[in-house]
């Protein structure tokens, strides 16, 4: 949960917006005239401020708090129940191994489902897929359309 007093710098906002758009650390560094290690430091600072365990969960929390009504592309195909369960765990920051343990499936199966979800959401990476999925479940769109 983000507190009202949580303040991000303009540079932190710029980095987070680029992450949500799917940019890598190198792309962010180039775009903002930073070095990749500095980008990593900024992401860690934002993680601490937002109280999130990893980059993906940080991007989801940032999107919820700072960009609550952003549009998205609806999925190209229905998202199935197991994929929905997996994505609920991804958006809170669980690793593939942790998801596999919690759902009693193989890590390889988790990766297979994540690849399928990324395709359906037209997401370049796990973080973009998580943000897009979270927008769906917040009511900005519908799952399985």
TrEMBL record:
GO function terms (MF aspect): DNA binding
The keyword NAD is annotated on this UniProt entry: no
UniProt entry tagged with the keyword DNA-binding: yes
Record-linked Gene3D superfamilies: Winged helix-like DNA-binding domain superfamily/Winged helix DNA-binding domain (1.10.10.10)
GO biological process: regulation of DNA-templated transcription
Domain HTH luxR-type, first and last residues per copy: 72-137
SMART domains: HTH_LUXR
Pfam family, one: GerE
CDD domains registered for this protein in UniProt: LuxR_C_like
InterPro entries with a match to the protein in the record: Sig_transdc_resp-reg_C-effctor (IPR016032), Tscrpt_reg_LuxR_C (IPR000792), WH-like_DNA-bd_sf (IPR036388)
Alphabetically ordered keywords of this record: DNA-binding, Transcription, Transcription regulation
Protein name, entry field: HTH luxR-type domain-containing protein
